[in-house]
Amino acid sequence: MSTLRMAAVAAEFGRDLEEDFAVVERLIKAARAEDVRLLALPEACLGGYLLSLDNDTELDEGPPALALDGPEIRRLAALAGEMTVIAGYCEAAADGRRYNSVVCVNGDGVLGNHRKVHQPLSEDASYASGDRFHAFATPVGRIGMMICYDKAFPESARALALDGAEIGVCVSAWPGARTHAVADLNEDRWKRRFDLHDRSRALENQFVWVSANQAGTFGSLRFVGSAKVVDPGGEILADTGVTAGLAIAELDVVQALETARRSMGHLRDRRPETYTPAGAVSA
């Protein structure tokens, strides 16, 4: 049996990159002390998220845009060392566009990168949209990544599972409800949706799910935290609750997937030829 110790982060990040890197370094040290080999940090942890999900781009230039092959990502990789670390950032692309992205690194460099596909509310005023979901090999297993609102679409996680992902990692800056806000985030309806998506995506695809999220507040947003690790049966193995922290769990990933898929294999038993609605033109 070969077990993997993994952790999802709930933490607060802002515009100051040096402060963000200080938080990241502290979290990596804390995870290393717990023998964690896979660490997921939140969406936009390098440079912070947007101040608002309304169309306020004139009030907020957004986070600093970082090149995938630039010094900041190399710095993150150096901090990761032997650990596999996943972190959200604003990507400066060669075509001049900015993407809400997530990168996977270790001491050898970049292992994978994903650009957020699904954009809620006015996020498209700040970022271009990604155009695919894919899994990739890492020292801790085959991983597929997505960002926040991506997980509201079952097709996103299913695409990763069909590409062989053993572990789905979703990094988020998921806030509490915009209207009829409650004092206790534990009672927040958007927090409830966040948790339901996490458990559903794991169970539907019968793979391990690691969900990181921002905590605290930034601009007009109050984040729900709730970082967690979910097993292939949809059971929560570790959860930070609505406060900052590390959700740490240990699992034999290969064995867990084999056990979950032994009798009823959701990927194996698919009938894709039946899923096109009547009258629709197939792609």
Topology (SSEs and partners):
Layout: E1 4-11, H1 17-33, E2 38-40, E3 65-66, H2 71-80, E4 84-92, E5 98-106, E6 109-115, E7 135-138, E8 141-147, H3 154-162, E9 167-172, H4 189-205, E10 208-214, E11 217-218, E12 221-222, E13 228-230, E14 236-239, E15 245-251, H5 253-261
Parallel strand pairs: 1-2, 1-10, 2-4, 3-4, 8-9, 9-10
Antiparallel strand pairs: 1-15, 4-5, 5-6, 7-8, 10-13, 11-12, 13-14
Describe the structure.
The structure is a single chain. With 283 residues, the protein is an alpha/beta fold. The protein has a single domain, classed as 4-Layer Sandwich (Nitrilase/N-carbamoyl-D-aminoacid amidohydrolase). 22% of the residues lie in helices and 28% in strands. It contains five helices and 15 strands. The protein has helices at residues 17-33, 71-80, 154-162, 189-205, 253-261; strands at residues 4-11, 38-40, 65-66, 84-92, 98-106, 109-115, 135-138, 141-147, 167-172, 208-214, 217-218, 221-222, 228-230, 236-239, 245-251. Strand 5 (98-106) and strand 6 (109-115) form a beta hairpin. Helix 3 runs parallel beside helix 4. The N and C termini lie far apart (42 Å). The mean pLDDT is 95. This is Carbon-nitrogen hydrolase family protein. InterPro entries: Aliph_Amidase/BUP (IPR050345), C-N_Hydrolase (IPR003010), C-N_Hydrolase_sf (IPR036526).
Quick take:
With 283 residues, this protein is of the alpha/beta class. The protein is 22% helix and 28% strand.
Overall 3D geometry? globular
Task: For the record, give the distance between the C-alpha atoms at the N and C termini, rounded to a whole number.
Answer: 42 Å
- Tell me the series of helices and strands, N- to C-terminal: EHEEHEEEEEHEHEEEEEEH
The number of distinct structural domains comes to 1
